[in-house]
Specification:
586 residues; TIM Barrel; globular; 23 helices; 7-stranded mixed beta sheet; 4 domains
Length: 586
């Protein structure tokens, strides 16, 4: 039997843990099952052609908010070109209204709701005449004599029964790999599907260590734990973190979704021992308004979270990604502004400004009329407006999100943004003003290259601040060189190389300089060294201000004095992705 498990991932670099877990569990049919992953960016004709060439007897799709619409369109065409194929859908987008989906989409033969590993294995047994009949298989919805039948919910499986899912790491070199050490969540946030599950199940630590060693031995780029709250059990989290620190291969990064407000001082001190770049934390804040958090049943102590995030940041070894949700019931524009500012002042490496998704199966969906939530009818069911936040305000936040993504999360404008933001009352006011400027000039209608983005920020600075233009230009240049050896300058920028080229060459010829600042390049020729680094002389010395930036940064520390900065692209910061830099004498 030819069985194809498929899904449409959001991006090429993503991989489907669900499909691999199902295949790994179906050990007696492993040779019959193939995984065929596509993305939502693929043309339907391309996917159709590829699936047609595979000639499946059974075709399973994993359905989520980002792919459900395309998947439903796709199966209509698949059923026409392969009428004999059995189409089975699973995943959260069909688990909570499966009967409705079966009524609306005649192409679906079976829906698997809930956990799919055991259920799919039993379905294969049915289709190969070696197992239970459909009415005996828990966790499915199927058709029988023109009727739609739903069997009882399947009991949760022990996680230790599920095999490790990855076999050929070479084929996934440039992709993110996903892993789970728990299922379930101890919290009951109304917007989250995990609130439907009761309790948390843990994979045994012995099994986790065994699995993680495979990732480490393969030196994969990144492993994302999909545990909803990784540190809900302190002992479980600490044991895994300790194992990863002890067995660090110097390359692999591990991403965790955590609750920062339950971290204690001892745990954070322990985490300070991790190699910079070994761990990455995603921390859901969503809102700092206690009234809003109470409405949505979210338990979070922002003062404790704030303390933990600051302490982790001080250690400079863990990338922190903080999430906010716009459109929560009870939160108006001013309240969201306050939440934004409180999170921004923590200066995490990334701030994700997301918009509420009113998901099927959640308490938020059940109470949408009570809360006055108006959202899109189609997936991903994103909020349009609420009783407290009108559509015009939502559009404003959308543009602010774009500015945040371009100018903050990219880390390409680190010092420029740190400087300009001091001329506004709050960070939110800066991004709001920048968003208005961007939209007023129609920049949202066109694509921009990296150089254009620096020019746009400079023009905004001149218009909104109106003085210290020379300082800001040099900071923009500094930011450009932090990321890469600049080959293309905006028209308003130039390099100092021609004015100082003789002294710069002498610097590279001096072995003492190389030993002091570039020890990894000792023995390289001056020409080879110059290819790997850059030495720029700035007319302004802002190094004192840069050193004090996280404690407020006194603008008085910026003075007009030629200052040579050496950028070392051989040595990059694992947290921000910036090159190392040194103030030198030439």
């Amino acid at each position: 039997m030819n069985i194809i498990l498929s899904t449409l991932n959001a991006k090429y670099l993503h991989t489907s843990l669900a499909l691999r877990s199902i295949k790994a569990y179906c050990t007696s049919h492993k040779d019959d099952i193939k995984i065929a992953e596509y993305t939502i960016n693929h043309q339907e004709d391309y996917i159709l052609r590829e699936i047609y060439k595979l000639r499946p007897d059974i075709l399973g799709f994993s359905c989520y908010i980002w792919n459900i619409e395309k998947t439903m369109d796709l199966i209509k065409s698949i059923k026409r070109i392969l009428p004999a194929v059995t189409i089975i859908l699973g995943g959260p987008e069909v688990s909570y209204d499966g009967i409705v989906q079966m009524k609306n989409h005649k192409e679906i033969d079976i829906i698997v709701y809930g956990e799919g590993e055991k259920t799919f294995n039993e379905l294969i047994g049915y289709f190969t005449n070696k197992g239970k009949s459909l009415d005996e298989i828990d966790g499915i919805i199927y058709r029988l004599d023109g009727e739609i039948v739903k069997t009882k919910k399947r009991k949760s499986v022990s996680l230790d029964e599920l095999p490790f899912v990855y076999k050929d790491f070479d084929k996934m070199k440039n992709q993110i790999l996903y892993y789970e050490s728990t299922r379930g969540c101890p919290y009951r946030c109304q917007y989250c599907l995990s609130s439907r599950e009761t309790g948390v199940r843990f994979l045994s630590l012995e099994r986790v260590y065994f699995d993680l060693r495979k990732f480490l031995d393969a030196k994969v780029k990144q492993v994302k734990f999909v545990d909803r709250t990784f540190n809900c059990s302190k002992s479980h989290a600490l044991a895994i973190w300790q194992f990863l620190i002890n067995n660090d291969n110097g390359k692999t990064n591990f991403h965790f979704e955590i609750s920062a407000d339950i971290l204690d001082e001892k745990t954070i001190d322990f985490l300070s021992k991790a190699r910079p770049g070994l761990f990455q934390f995603e921390i859901g804040v969503q809102s700092t308004n206690e009234h809003v958090l109470g409405i949505i049943d979210r338990k979070m102590d922002f003062n404790k979270l704030k303390w933990a995030v600051k302490k982790i940041k001080k250690n400079k070894n863990i990338h922190q990604h903080l999430d906010l949700i716009a459109g929560l019931p009870g939160e108006d524009y001013n309240s969201f502004r306050q939440s934004f500012n409180e999170v921004y002042y923590l200066l995490p490496e990334k701030i994700q400004l997301g918009f509420l998704k009113v998901l099927k199966g959640t308490e938020m969906k059940n109470k949408e009329n009570e809360y006055g939530l108006k959202h899109k009818n189609k997936a991903p069911y994103e909020i349009l407006f609420t009783k407290e936040l009108n559509y015009e305000e939502m559009l404003r936040l959308k543009m602010i999100e774009e500015m945040l993504e371009i100018y903050y999360n990219s880390q390409r404008f680190y010092y420029s943004i740190s400087y300009i933001i001091r001329f506004f009352d709050t960070p939110f006011d800066f991004y709001e003003a920048l968003a208005k400027h961007w939209e007023r000039l129609g920049f949202h209608h066109i694509q921009h290259n990296k150089t254009d983005l620096y020019t746009i920020l400079l023009e905004f600075f001149i218009k909104s601040v109106g003085y210290n233009e020379e300082i800001f230009k040099e900071l923009l240049k500094f930011d450009m060189y932090l990321i890469e050896k600049v080959k293309r300058f905006p028209s308003w920028m130039s390099s100092s190389y021609d004015d100082y080229k003789t002294r710069i060459r002498e610097f590279y010829r001096n072995e003492g300089n190389i030993r002091e600042y570039l020890p990894k390049l000792v023995g390289y020729s001056p020409k080879d060294i110059s290819r790997r680094v850059h030495l720029e002389v700035f007319p302004i010395d802002f190094t004192g201000w840069i050193k004090s930036i996280e404690t407020g940064g006194d603008l008085a520390d910026i003075g007009k004095k030629p200052t040579a900065i050496l950028f070392d692209y051989y040595l990059k910061d694992n947290i921000l992705g910036h090159s190392a830099f040194y103030k030198v004498i030439i």
